[in-house]
Amino acid sequence: MGIYLDNHSTTQLAPEAGAAMRPHWERPGNANSPHRAGWDAADAIQNARQKIATLIGAGPDEIVFTSGATEADNLAITGAAHAARSADPRRRRIVVSSIEHKAVLLSADAMRAEGFEVVRIPVSTDGIAEIAVLEQLVSPETCLVSVMAANNEIGTLQPLKEVATIAHHHGALFHVDAAQAAGRIPLDVFALDVDYMSLSAHKMHGPQGVGALFVSSAAPTPTPLIRGGGQQGGVRSGTLPTALIAGFGVAADLATHGQEAHAARVARLADLFVGELLAHQCRFTKMFENGDQLPGSVSVCFSGIDADDLIQMLAERIFLSTGAACNGGNMEPSHVLQAVGLSPEKSREFVRILFSRYNDENDAMAAGATIADACLAVRLATGRSHQ
Questions:
Q1: Long-range contacts of 373-382 (CB under 8 A, 24+ apart)
Q2: Which of 226, 256, 286 is the C-terminal boundary of a domain?
Q3: Farthest CA pair distance, the chain
Q4: So what's the pLDDT on residue 179?
Q5: Which positions are catalytic?
Q6: Distance CA 31, CA 227 (A)
Q7: What residues make up the domain containing 129?
Q8: Residue 387 belongs to a domain
């Protein structure tokens, strides 16, 4: 097994989460069934719901399970916009940051067909939403503002409390995509004054295929996207996947404890990695240093190196990516890198790295040395060793 540093994309399943899931794979149980197997499933789901709520400072009844953060984003954008317009037909403007995940951007753009106006908040070269511009964009006609907690490509953290204040001053609802941030930095939906927050289990060492949407008890209930048996108060119908939710709950519980020590640890690993690149005289630019980033996140442009070629060269040894995994196969520069003003040339040199709780000092140092050697090999092969 190589060194896994693509934790922006997905994370290793925590052994404790896997153990919590196993019994529910091995025995049946529908949480809505009126017998012991159903009761056991319902208890497991409620236990997980409480742990996930605790992670973000919510109440358990404010957690709606989904198939992942993508569905949660879709439900928040579409459902909240419909709910807000039903309460006040004047509210037809949706404001989103220009570096949101495509689950937010495309959901918002799709609302134009229903008569909504969609505007995007520009970001600085450090990847931070321009608050002064946001103040001009939000008005009494705004129904929803959506700004992510941490970016999935460059790791930058957004000033959520300031955004919430602006949105609520004009009576707009506020959604946060926290898929990258939850479990990595402290989040408190009450302190941040958030109406809706999207979560993903597999970004915090839980299983793939399950996520959640926090819906504040003080916010309008989103209009459902999925209709059926009326589970979860009708907000999101469908039989709940007990095993996945149990794993999600344990992952959230693990993330709740020792968060500060974990952040300091992965930040040190990132520093060790960068130090190893420097020690091997690797030519690179560390990006977005002037803004707050997720602990353990490193954004690097390797001078004169095509990042895709580098990643393929290392594919069996170091697991990296250039941007959002859901954009795989798209040859166009990332919309995030375009929004922060990176040139096409620099965008082709860009690699994202995120250290996790399952990385150690040996990983950081070995990865730095191996990547530096690979960059030198590419330069020698292309005659660019002196560039």
A1: 373/280, 374/310, 374/313, 374/314, 375/282, 375/283, 375/284, 375/302, 375/305, 375/310, 376/280, 376/282, 377/313, 378/305, 378/306, 378/309, 378/310, 378/313, 379/304, 379/305
A2: 256
A3: 73
A4: 98
A5: 326
A6: 18
A7: 15-256
A8: no
Per-residue pLDDT reduced to its tens digit, 50-90: 999 999 999 999 999 999 999 999 999 999 999 999 999 99
Domain end residue (candidates: 256, 275, 304): 256
**Inside any domain, residue 367:** yes
- The torsion angles phi and psi of 232, rounded to 5 degrees, stand at 55, 45
Q: What CA–CA distance (Å, rounded) separates 108 from 296? A: 31
Integer Rg of the chain from CA: 21
Same domain, 32 and 164: yes
Phi, psi angle pair for 289, to nearest 5° = -75, -15
The confidence band for 332, taking pLDDT boundaries of 50, 70 and 90, is confident
- Of 129-133, 214-218, 320-324, 353-357, minimum mean pLDDT range: 320-324
CA distance 49 to 62: 9
Which of 205, 208, 181 is CA-nearest to residue 325? Answer: 208
* Same domain assignment for residues 350 and 202: no
Q: Are 273 and 223 in a shared domain?
A: no
If DSSP codes are grouped into helix, strand and coil, which group holds residue 233? helix
* pLDDT band per the 50, 70, 90 thresholds, residue 324: low
